[in-house]
């Protein structure tokens, strides 16, 4: 089984882009398992991962393509959570969606995508998902 960990934020456009990029990888969908990880930076209402619209949309796209999907949630630093889950599952690939930020914005706010790329030896697929 080919294991993929995909970091999904609140953007439905980026979640959809991630799912579609995964379905376009030339491999047997029945031999792929994707774990969609959503990191709650703030969650005062106590929402669960299956209540996040971007996660639900990504799951729909993947399941329609015949890909097995699992859901995970965490809280804290998204890049750390993605890297930790990829290690725990011995993932073959990590998939994230970049977002457009100015160089200053990246310095001030950091970049999950950059942290994931620099923090792993695993293959990382970076998708482009425009803001909604």
TrEMBL record:
This is Universal stress protein. Residues 4-127 form the UspA domain. SUPFAM superfamilies: Adenine nucleotide alpha hydrolases-like. Pfam families: Usp. Transmembrane segments: none annotated. Belongs to the universal stress protein A family.
